[in-house]
Amino acid sequence: MSHASSAVLVINCGSSSLKYAVIPSESMPRSARIEGLAEALGTPAARIKGKTAQGEAFTLEVPGGDHAQALEAILQRMEGIPFSAIGHRVVHGGEHFTHAARIDAAVLAAIAQTTPLAPLHNPANLTGIQSTLRLFPDLPQVAVFDTAFHQTLPEHAWRYAVPADWYTEHRIRRYGFHGTSHRYVSQLATSLTLNENVSTGPFGWLVAHLGNGCSTCAVWDGKSLDTSMGLTPLEGLVMGTRSGDIDPGIPAHLQRTLGWSLADIDIQLNRHSGLLGLSGLSNDMRTLTEAAAQGHAGAVLAIEVFCYRLAKSLAALSCALPEIHGLIFTGGIGENAPLIREKTLRLLSHLGFHLDAQANLSLPRGSAGRIELASSTPRAIWVIPTDEEAQIAAETCALLEASPLH
Ligand code: AMP
Q1: pTM (global) more than 0.90
Q2: Beta-bridge mates of residue 383
Q3: Which atom of ligand 1 is nearest to the CA of 283?
Q4: Taking Cα atoms as reference points, which of 236, 254, 253 lies closest to residue 244?
Q5: CA 324, CA 203: separation in Å to the nearest integer?
Q6: Which residue's alpha carbon is nearest to atom 22 within ligand 1?
Q7: Ligand 1 site: residues with CB under 6 angstroms?
Q8: Which terminus of the chain has a lower count of CB atoms within 10 Å, N or C?
Q9: Count of C-beta atoms within a 10 Å radius of residue 192
Q10: Nearest CA, atom 21, ligand 1
Q11: What is the mean pLDDT of residues 239-250?
Q12: Is the distance from CB of 236 to CB of 229 less than 8 angstroms?
């Protein structure tokens, strides 16, 4: 069977969660897509929420269930839904993976070797792969890496200005993340623009992926030229609970003056900072926009810092592009928070971005659309819902079509 004509099961494992989706091929109806989530895995509260082949929502308690047990329970509910390949999200591919890779023993070993760079994520991704290899030994499986899209960065963008042996001996460099999303939305913006027949490209896009994790990316002619995240997903923008950029001298200062351990500081920067740390209220942008409207000072401050730092990052990344054709907002915040788009764009008019305030407010939820003031600017402002699962399925099919094996 051609992989392009059948569905792909997409698996995205976190340390205690497993997201899954069956993505129909382009020749199948979009309604054939099903998806769900197993959460709190390994705890008494482990449960699965999803839809059956008939489209009925279900919740299933699997107390103490691990990734493999959750997957077996999900597959039982999915009987009658055929798929011919499995695509896995893998967070860190280091320098080894510049593209998606068909999973075999060598690829598994290379992913395991990259674990020191992503100690929380890669082991969970490997657990998911090992479970599906056991359950489907005969199906082709593909790993799609968050970092791979950014392997086109020029060296001046990925090197840190630290002693050279930090990189040559320890691979300390900028890798970038959210690559699957940045690739998906920038490809879609390009094809939507080509459909309009006004320009043939190449196109330069600034992308803001704003979810619980947030990153920006400069994409030229389909290639990532710079991005805001670095060795880890802590660098760059203000995020839900992550600080983004801080003075690199702060951890040593805290350790020296207060005796805090590096492990403790790391936890504070990753889990107690960002929107949560600034607002003292929540890491959730919806909660913060509602609280800010009621005058909550912490929420107001968190939103101001978030938007200022985002605009600053986009302006910085504009240096990477020979020409800017547009800006793309995506992710839960980018797609659904007009206030954040408006505040950020107010800081970027010198780059030629002018917002149509009405279009910004009235864009239908979940749909792609342009929100720039058409009369005053040649620069597009897109809102494009990301679809990392569809991108993983597409890359899985493309790889298997190109190298059918065995
Ligand atoms: P994601 O990680 O892409 O699912 O995005 C999660 C983030 O999107 C959270 O901070 C949510 O609060 C935010 N979000 C989702 N819907 C809205 C909304 N209508 N207004 C503001 N933020 C939203």
Answers
A1: yes
A2: 329, 369
A3: 10
A4: 236
A5: 7
A6: 286
A7: 211-212, 240, 284-286, 289, 331-333, 336-337
A8: C
A9: 15
A10: 286
A11: 97
A12: yes
**Nearest atom in ligand 1 to 289's CA:** 21
Report CA 4 to chain centroid distance, whole Å.
Answer: 24
Whether residue 403 contacts residue 102, with contact meaning beta carbons closer than 8 Å, is answered with yes
Rounded distance from Cα 307 to ligand 1 centre (Å): 15
DSSP 326-373: EEEEEHHHHHH-HHHHHHHHHT-GGGT--B-HHHHHHPPTT--EE-B-
Residue of 177, 282, 336, 365 best suited for mutating to test ligand 1, as the one with most atoms within 8 Å of CB:
336
Beta-bridge partners for 142 = 87, 102
For residues 3 and 172, the model is more confident at 172
Task: Decide if 3-145 and 192-388 have a common fold.
Answer: yes
Name the closest-CA residue to atom 9, ligand 1.
284
| pLDDT bracket for residue 112 (50, 70, 90) | very high
Choose which residue among 239, 286, 289, 343 to substitute to test ligand 1 binding: the one with the highest number of ligand atoms within 8 A of its C-beta: 286
Query: Measured from the CA of 365, which atom of ligand 1 is nearest?
Result: 19
In the chain, the largest separation of any two C-alpha atoms, in whole Å, equals 64
- Ligand 1 centroid to Cα of residue 150, in Å, is 25
Note the pLDDT tens digit of each residue in 153-183. Answer: 999 999 999 999 999 999 999 999 999 999 9
User: Which token pair is 218?
Assistant: 């400069």
Res 27: pLDDT: 65
Q: Class assignment of domain 3-145?
A: alpha beta
The CATH T-level fold of domain 192-388 is: Nucleotidyltransferase; domain 5 (3.30.420)
pLDDT band at 244 (very low <50, low <70, confident <90, very high): very high
d(CA 177, CA 388): 12
Domain ranges of the chain: 3-145, 192-388
Q: How many percent of the chain have pLDDT more than 90?
A: 80
Which structure tokens are listed for 98? 């510049």
Any idea which residues carry the catalytic annotation?
146
* Cα 102 to ligand 1 centre (Å): 33
